[in-house]
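User: Can you fold this complex?
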Amino acid sequence: MNPVKAKLGPEVEALARELLAVSEFLYNHPEIAYQEYKACEFLSRFLTERGFVVEQGIGGVKTAFLARPAGRRTERPTIALLAEYDALPGVGHGCGHNLIAAASLGAAVALGRHLDSLTGGLAVVGTPAEEGGGGKILLAEAGVFVGMDAAMMFHPGRLNLPGEEMIGRIKFKVEFFGQAAHASVSPDRGVNALDAMVAAYNNINALRQALRPDARVHGIITHGGDAPNIIPEYTAGMFYVRAASREYMNEVFGQVKKCIEGAALATGTRFEIEVGQPTFDPIKRNPPLEEAVRPNMEALGITVDRDDGRRGSSDIGNLSYFLPAVHPSLAIVNPEVPGHSQTFAEATMSPRGREILLKAAKLLAMTAYDYLTSAELRERMLEAFHQKE
Ligand SMILES: [Zn+2]
Ligand SMILES: [Zn+2]
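Assistant: Here's the predicted assembly.
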């Protein structure tokens, strides 16, 4: 291994206590989407104290930040290390974003010390509100990533994968409007909005059988009526449509709308659909970048798992259309443990979680090093990025 690259691991190791403290601080102060004030402050201070210039509130998002090594502001290529730090309502860091932030900071500090011997730059982008808020989308649309050439982060999970598949997601609200009436005295004068919702729900269930395996439709009824003796005049629900390509996601959304329309027609109700923000894009994977991650995982003693086909969605999907991006997963729990759970949150502080935090920081630093030192890798990445979906 190149002598500079070989130093990155021991340097992360030397930062171990500080990085574990970052993860622990976030764990003990969980803040949900767009409320990550303490996290933003803590991470900014950590980087400032280690030679970075930090700007908070970038892209119009108060709890976002951008950090660059002092004196090296505009070099190309620039690799962005993404730090997520939002928690979930109820289960704190049940998605393990405390480890994500700590690993990206560790990689940035370790690699930052060697920039003088390299061409190019690095940036840490603090990206709030991955959970439901789509912070990366706001930052990307505001131009925060202009002048950056690739982005990477790791996510703790159930499997070891050099790159994670992410499906797209549209979320929407559906409302049915009918006519209230006494449910016993004059049901014939009513128009039942709950029947419309139930019919729509069942139509969607029937549609599910005809969907490709990558698509998901799931939803809840958020308002089902007001009293059993009133024919419900208003009902509302929230649904998600997901699929592995933008094209198929929109196609399925069109089919789901037909399910709703059919239910309205059958029941004589009126309906409205309101698409909520954000819409997540499926990730545009970058095979050369993932292939650069893989040998570094193996060098760190991490065995790459087989993808088990379980899929989520993330705002890194949208970002992957702005610049080449990679989202490796490193296991901190056994495959049967669900994410977004208390057990997963606790696993971030377990011996295994702590070990993975350091390995993730090394993995990011090593891969960022490969990126900055290989013009050939960058070229192949760009070619893959510009290829049509
Ligand atoms: Zn999550
Ligand atoms: Zn997450």
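The pocket of zinc ion (ligand 1) is lined by residues 95, 131, 340 (CB under 6 Å). The chain has a mean pLDDT of 97.
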